[in-house]
Design brief:
The protein has about 325 residues and is mostly helical. It is built from 16 helices and no strands.
Protein backbone atom coordinates (compact mmCIF):
# COMPACT_ATOMS: atom_id res chain seq x y z
CA UNK A 1 0.00 0.00 0.00
CA UNK A 2 2.83 2.40 0.82
CA UNK A 3 4.60 1.60 -2.47
CA UNK A 4 1.34 2.12 -4.32
CA UNK A 5 0.86 5.58 -2.79
CA UNK A 6 4.38 6.62 -3.81
CA UNK A 7 3.94 5.33 -7.38
CA UNK A 8 0.62 7.17 -7.72
CA UNK A 9 2.14 10.36 -6.34
CA UNK A 10 5.08 10.08 -8.77
CA UNK A 11 2.64 9.48 -11.61
CA UNK A 12 0.72 12.67 -10.78
CA UNK A 13 3.98 14.63 -10.86
CA UNK A 14 5.29 13.43 -14.24
CA UNK A 15 2.06 12.93 -16.22
CA UNK A 16 2.24 14.88 -19.47
CA UNK A 17 5.84 15.97 -18.87
CA UNK A 18 7.98 12.92 -19.61
CA UNK A 19 6.25 10.10 -21.57
CA UNK A 20 9.13 7.64 -21.13
CA UNK A 21 9.26 8.09 -17.36
CA UNK A 22 5.47 8.10 -17.19
CA UNK A 23 5.34 4.72 -19.00
CA UNK A 24 8.00 3.28 -16.67
CA UNK A 25 6.13 4.48 -13.57
CA UNK A 26 2.88 3.06 -14.92
CA UNK A 27 4.59 -0.32 -15.44
CA UNK A 28 5.87 -0.35 -11.85
CA UNK A 29 2.45 0.64 -10.52
CA UNK A 30 0.77 -2.08 -12.60
CA UNK A 31 3.16 -4.66 -11.14
CA UNK A 32 2.32 -3.46 -7.63
CA UNK A 33 -1.42 -3.70 -8.28
CA UNK A 34 -1.06 -7.21 -9.74
CA UNK A 35 0.79 -8.30 -6.60
CA UNK A 36 -2.01 -7.17 -4.31
CA UNK A 37 -4.70 -8.58 -6.63
CA UNK A 38 -6.31 -5.30 -7.74
CA UNK A 39 -6.83 -6.37 -11.36
CA UNK A 40 -9.53 -3.81 -12.18
CA UNK A 41 -7.31 -0.82 -11.38
CA UNK A 42 -4.33 -2.50 -13.02
CA UNK A 43 -6.35 -2.88 -16.22
CA UNK A 44 -7.12 0.85 -16.42
CA UNK A 45 -3.42 1.66 -16.07
CA UNK A 46 -2.42 -0.96 -18.67
CA UNK A 47 -4.84 0.55 -21.19
CA UNK A 48 -3.51 4.01 -20.40
CA UNK A 49 0.06 2.77 -20.89
CA UNK A 50 -0.83 1.15 -24.22
CA UNK A 51 -2.11 4.48 -25.54
CA UNK A 52 1.04 6.16 -24.28
CA UNK A 53 3.24 3.61 -26.09
CA UNK A 54 1.14 3.33 -29.28
CA UNK A 55 3.60 5.37 -31.35
CA UNK A 56 6.71 4.20 -29.51
CA UNK A 57 9.42 2.41 -31.55
CA UNK A 58 10.07 0.21 -28.49
CA UNK A 59 8.47 -3.06 -29.68
CA UNK A 60 9.56 -5.02 -26.59
CA UNK A 61 7.73 -2.70 -24.20
CA UNK A 62 4.55 -2.87 -26.29
CA UNK A 63 4.71 -6.67 -26.25
CA UNK A 64 5.19 -6.72 -22.48
CA UNK A 65 2.07 -4.59 -22.08
CA UNK A 66 0.08 -7.15 -24.09
CA UNK A 67 1.43 -9.90 -21.87
CA UNK A 68 0.42 -8.01 -18.74
CA UNK A 69 -3.08 -7.65 -20.19
CA UNK A 70 -3.13 -11.39 -20.94
CA UNK A 71 -2.03 -12.07 -17.36
CA UNK A 72 -4.94 -10.01 -16.01
CA UNK A 73 -7.43 -11.88 -18.20
CA UNK A 74 -5.96 -15.30 -17.33
CA UNK A 75 -5.41 -14.85 -13.57
CA UNK A 76 -7.64 -17.19 -11.57
CA UNK A 77 -8.16 -14.45 -8.94
CA UNK A 78 -9.39 -11.89 -11.45
CA UNK A 79 -13.06 -11.01 -11.81
CA UNK A 80 -12.12 -9.98 -15.36
CA UNK A 81 -10.96 -13.50 -16.29
CA UNK A 82 -11.49 -14.15 -20.00
CA UNK A 83 -9.36 -17.01 -21.34
CA UNK A 84 -10.31 -16.49 -25.00
CA UNK A 85 -9.22 -12.85 -24.83
CA UNK A 86 -6.03 -13.85 -23.00
CA UNK A 87 -5.24 -16.37 -25.77
CA UNK A 88 -5.88 -13.76 -28.48
CA UNK A 89 -3.40 -11.39 -26.80
CA UNK A 90 -0.85 -14.21 -26.47
CA UNK A 91 -1.15 -15.07 -30.17
CA UNK A 92 -0.61 -11.43 -31.13
CA UNK A 93 2.37 -11.15 -28.78
CA UNK A 94 3.92 -14.37 -30.10
CA UNK A 95 3.83 -13.09 -33.68
CA UNK A 96 5.50 -9.83 -32.67
CA UNK A 97 8.07 -11.62 -30.50
CA UNK A 98 9.47 -13.45 -33.53
CA UNK A 99 10.56 -10.05 -34.89
CA UNK A 100 12.73 -9.28 -31.83
CA UNK A 101 16.41 -9.49 -32.76
CA UNK A 102 17.86 -9.70 -29.25
CA UNK A 103 17.97 -13.42 -28.35
CA UNK A 104 17.79 -12.93 -24.58
CA UNK A 105 14.85 -10.54 -24.84
CA UNK A 106 13.06 -12.88 -27.27
CA UNK A 107 13.63 -15.86 -24.97
CA UNK A 108 12.38 -13.90 -21.95
CA UNK A 109 9.20 -12.89 -23.79
CA UNK A 110 8.61 -16.45 -24.99
CA UNK A 111 9.09 -17.78 -21.47
CA UNK A 112 6.37 -15.43 -20.23
CA UNK A 113 4.16 -16.47 -23.15
CA UNK A 114 4.62 -20.15 -22.27
CA UNK A 115 3.57 -19.46 -18.67
CA UNK A 116 0.42 -17.78 -19.94
CA UNK A 117 -0.36 -20.61 -22.38
CA UNK A 118 -0.13 -23.08 -19.48
CA UNK A 119 -2.41 -20.85 -17.41
CA UNK A 120 -5.12 -20.77 -20.10
CA UNK A 121 -4.81 -24.50 -20.83
CA UNK A 122 -3.08 -24.37 -24.23
CA UNK A 123 -0.43 -26.96 -23.41
CA UNK A 124 -0.02 -27.77 -27.11
CA UNK A 125 1.35 -24.26 -27.62
CA UNK A 126 3.28 -24.01 -24.36
CA UNK A 127 5.26 -27.26 -24.66
CA UNK A 128 7.09 -26.53 -27.98
CA UNK A 129 8.08 -23.05 -26.72
CA UNK A 130 9.40 -24.42 -23.43
CA UNK A 131 11.23 -27.34 -25.05
CA UNK A 132 13.01 -24.86 -27.33
CA UNK A 133 13.90 -22.57 -24.40
CA UNK A 134 15.31 -25.51 -22.41
CA UNK A 135 17.33 -26.80 -25.38
CA UNK A 136 18.80 -23.34 -26.05
CA UNK A 137 19.61 -22.57 -22.42
CA UNK A 138 23.14 -23.61 -21.50
CA UNK A 139 23.10 -25.26 -18.09
CA UNK A 140 26.29 -23.58 -16.90
CA UNK A 141 25.18 -19.98 -17.59
CA UNK A 142 21.80 -19.31 -15.99
CA UNK A 143 20.71 -22.22 -13.83
CA UNK A 144 17.93 -20.24 -12.15
CA UNK A 145 16.24 -19.43 -15.47
CA UNK A 146 16.70 -23.00 -16.72
CA UNK A 147 15.25 -24.46 -13.51
CA UNK A 148 12.13 -22.28 -13.78
CA UNK A 149 11.67 -23.19 -17.46
CA UNK A 150 11.96 -26.90 -16.59
CA UNK A 151 9.38 -26.54 -13.81
CA UNK A 152 6.91 -24.85 -16.15
CA UNK A 153 7.61 -27.54 -18.74
CA UNK A 154 6.93 -30.27 -16.14
CA UNK A 155 3.61 -28.58 -15.33
CA UNK A 156 2.64 -28.44 -19.01
CA UNK A 157 3.58 -32.11 -19.50
CA UNK A 158 1.63 -33.15 -16.40
CA UNK A 159 -1.51 -31.26 -17.37
CA UNK A 160 -1.26 -32.71 -20.88
CA UNK A 161 -1.16 -36.22 -19.37
CA UNK A 162 2.51 -36.85 -20.20
CA UNK A 163 3.53 -37.93 -16.69
CA UNK A 164 6.78 -39.67 -17.70
CA UNK A 165 8.03 -36.50 -19.42
CA UNK A 166 6.92 -34.44 -16.42
CA UNK A 167 8.94 -36.69 -14.10
CA UNK A 168 12.02 -36.30 -16.33
CA UNK A 169 11.73 -32.49 -16.24
CA UNK A 170 11.34 -32.47 -12.44
CA UNK A 171 14.37 -34.74 -12.00
CA UNK A 172 16.46 -32.43 -14.17
CA UNK A 173 15.44 -29.49 -11.98
CA UNK A 174 16.38 -31.05 -8.62
CA UNK A 175 20.18 -30.38 -8.72
CA UNK A 176 19.64 -26.71 -9.59
CA UNK A 177 17.19 -26.22 -6.72
CA UNK A 178 19.63 -27.72 -4.22
CA UNK A 179 22.27 -25.20 -5.34
CA UNK A 180 19.93 -22.19 -4.96
CA UNK A 181 18.65 -20.42 -1.84
CA UNK A 182 15.69 -18.76 -3.54
CA UNK A 183 12.35 -19.20 -1.68
CA UNK A 184 10.29 -18.86 -4.83
CA UNK A 185 12.24 -21.49 -6.76
CA UNK A 186 12.16 -23.91 -3.83
CA UNK A 187 8.43 -23.38 -3.43
CA UNK A 188 7.78 -23.98 -7.14
CA UNK A 189 9.88 -27.15 -7.07
CA UNK A 190 8.08 -28.64 -4.06
CA UNK A 191 4.68 -27.63 -5.46
CA UNK A 192 5.22 -29.16 -8.90
CA UNK A 193 6.74 -32.26 -7.32
CA UNK A 194 3.67 -32.59 -5.07
CA UNK A 195 1.28 -32.10 -8.00
CA UNK A 196 3.09 -34.73 -10.05
CA UNK A 197 3.14 -37.24 -7.17
CA UNK A 198 -0.59 -36.66 -6.72
CA UNK A 199 -1.18 -37.28 -10.44
CA UNK A 200 0.87 -40.48 -10.13
CA UNK A 201 -1.32 -41.64 -7.23
CA UNK A 202 1.47 -41.35 -4.64
CA UNK A 203 -0.63 -39.38 -2.19
CA UNK A 204 1.47 -39.83 0.95
CA UNK A 205 4.61 -38.57 -0.81
CA UNK A 206 2.55 -35.75 -2.33
CA UNK A 207 1.35 -34.65 1.11
CA UNK A 208 4.95 -34.46 2.35
CA UNK A 209 5.79 -32.13 -0.53
CA UNK A 210 2.65 -30.03 -0.04
CA UNK A 211 3.58 -29.58 3.61
CA UNK A 212 6.96 -28.17 2.54
CA UNK A 213 5.20 -25.70 0.23
CA UNK A 214 2.75 -24.65 2.95
CA UNK A 215 5.63 -24.14 5.38
CA UNK A 216 7.33 -21.80 2.89
CA UNK A 217 4.06 -19.93 2.31
CA UNK A 218 3.58 -19.41 6.04
CA UNK A 219 7.06 -17.92 6.29
CA UNK A 220 6.31 -15.54 3.42
CA UNK A 221 2.93 -14.54 4.84
CA UNK A 222 4.50 -13.85 8.23
CA UNK A 223 6.85 -11.26 6.69
CA UNK A 224 4.36 -9.17 4.70
CA UNK A 225 1.59 -6.82 5.75
CA UNK A 226 -1.63 -5.21 4.59
CA UNK A 227 -3.16 -5.65 1.14
CA UNK A 228 -0.06 -7.44 -0.16
CA UNK A 229 -0.67 -10.25 2.32
CA UNK A 230 -4.21 -10.73 1.02
CA UNK A 231 -3.10 -10.54 -2.61
CA UNK A 232 -0.35 -13.12 -2.18
CA UNK A 233 -2.52 -15.37 -0.03
CA UNK A 234 -5.22 -15.30 -2.72
CA UNK A 235 -2.70 -16.14 -5.41
CA UNK A 236 -1.66 -19.33 -3.63
CA UNK A 237 -4.98 -20.34 -2.11
CA UNK A 238 -5.32 -23.21 -4.57
CA UNK A 239 -2.28 -24.92 -3.00
CA UNK A 240 -4.15 -25.35 0.29
CA UNK A 241 -7.09 -26.79 -1.63
CA UNK A 242 -4.85 -29.24 -3.49
CA UNK A 243 -3.19 -30.33 -0.26
CA UNK A 244 -6.58 -31.04 1.31
CA UNK A 245 -7.52 -32.93 -1.86
CA UNK A 246 -4.44 -35.14 -1.46
CA UNK A 247 -5.41 -35.86 2.17
CA UNK A 248 -8.88 -36.84 1.00
CA UNK A 249 -7.55 -39.13 -1.74
CA UNK A 250 -5.28 -40.87 0.77
CA UNK A 251 -8.16 -41.04 3.28
CA UNK A 252 -10.26 -43.03 0.81
CA UNK A 253 -7.57 -45.70 0.56
CA UNK A 254 -6.50 -45.73 4.22
CA UNK A 255 -7.38 -48.14 7.03
CA UNK A 256 -9.94 -47.07 9.64
CA UNK A 257 -7.38 -46.09 12.33
CA UNK A 258 -5.43 -44.02 9.79
CA UNK A 259 -8.57 -42.26 8.54
CA UNK A 260 -9.04 -40.47 11.87
CA UNK A 261 -5.50 -39.08 11.78
CA UNK A 262 -5.75 -38.04 8.13
CA UNK A 263 -9.10 -36.32 8.56
CA UNK A 264 -7.75 -34.47 11.61
CA UNK A 265 -4.72 -33.24 9.66
CA UNK A 266 -6.82 -32.16 6.68
CA UNK A 267 -9.24 -30.33 8.96
CA UNK A 268 -6.35 -28.57 10.71
CA UNK A 269 -4.98 -27.31 7.37
CA UNK A 270 -8.42 -26.18 6.25
CA UNK A 271 -9.45 -24.45 9.48
CA UNK A 272 -6.14 -22.71 10.11
CA UNK A 273 -6.20 -21.36 6.57
CA UNK A 274 -9.79 -20.15 6.90
CA UNK A 275 -8.93 -18.41 10.18
CA UNK A 276 -6.03 -16.62 8.48
CA UNK A 277 -8.24 -15.65 5.55
CA UNK A 278 -10.69 -14.04 7.95
CA UNK A 279 -8.01 -12.17 9.92
CA UNK A 280 -6.27 -10.93 6.79
CA UNK A 281 -9.44 -9.83 4.99
CA UNK A 282 -10.65 -8.07 8.15
CA UNK A 283 -7.37 -6.22 8.64
CA UNK A 284 -7.38 -5.22 4.97
CA UNK A 285 -10.95 -3.94 5.23
CA UNK A 286 -9.87 -1.62 8.04
CA UNK A 287 -6.77 -0.64 6.10
CA UNK A 288 -8.77 0.16 2.95
CA UNK A 289 -12.14 1.39 4.23
CA UNK A 290 -11.30 2.63 7.70
CA UNK A 291 -8.67 4.93 6.26
CA UNK A 292 -11.28 6.53 4.03
CA UNK A 293 -8.77 7.02 1.23
CA UNK A 294 -6.45 9.18 3.38
CA UNK A 295 -2.83 9.18 2.23
CA UNK A 296 -0.46 6.85 4.06
CA UNK A 297 1.83 9.62 5.35
CA UNK A 298 -1.16 11.41 6.89
CA UNK A 299 -2.27 8.20 8.59
CA UNK A 300 1.21 7.78 10.06
CA UNK A 301 1.14 11.39 11.30
CA UNK A 302 -2.27 10.77 12.86
CA UNK A 303 -0.99 7.65 14.67
CA UNK A 304 2.01 9.60 15.93
CA UNK A 305 -0.22 12.38 17.32
CA UNK A 306 -2.55 9.86 18.95
CA UNK A 307 0.45 8.21 20.65
CA UNK A 308 1.71 11.56 21.94
CA UNK A 309 -1.79 12.48 23.13
CA UNK A 310 -2.06 9.22 25.05
CA UNK A 311 1.34 9.80 26.65
CA UNK A 312 0.24 13.25 27.84
CA UNK A 313 -3.03 11.86 29.22
CA UNK A 314 -1.10 9.19 31.09
CA UNK A 315 1.09 11.85 32.71
CA UNK A 316 -1.94 13.94 33.69
CA UNK A 317 -3.75 11.01 35.27
CA UNK A 318 -0.74 9.78 37.31
CA UNK A 319 -0.53 10.74 41.01
CA UNK A 320 1.49 13.93 41.34
CA UNK A 321 4.87 13.83 43.08
CA UNK A 322 5.65 16.18 45.98
CA UNK A 323 7.66 18.47 43.66
CA UNK A 324 4.79 18.74 41.19
CA UNK A 325 2.33 19.56 44.02
CA UNK A 326 4.46 22.51 45.15
CA UNK A 327 4.49 23.88 41.62
Amino acid sequence: ELARSYFERALETITGRNPTLEALTLSRLIGNLMTIGDHETALTYVERNQKLLADSPDRETRIWQKLVLAEIYSDRRSALRDLSLAEKLCTEALGETELIEDKLQRRSLKNELADLYVEIGRYDKAIPILELIVSEQKENTDKFRLANALLTLSEAYRKAGRLRDARSAIDRTRPFVLEQTDFFLAGRFHYHTASLLKAEGLYEDAINEYEKVLSLLERIRANIRGQSKVGIAGAYEFIYEEAIGAYYALYQKASEPSKILLSTKALAVSESNRARQYRESLSTMFLREGAGGVQVDLLRRERSLITRKQALLNRLTKPQSEGEKKL
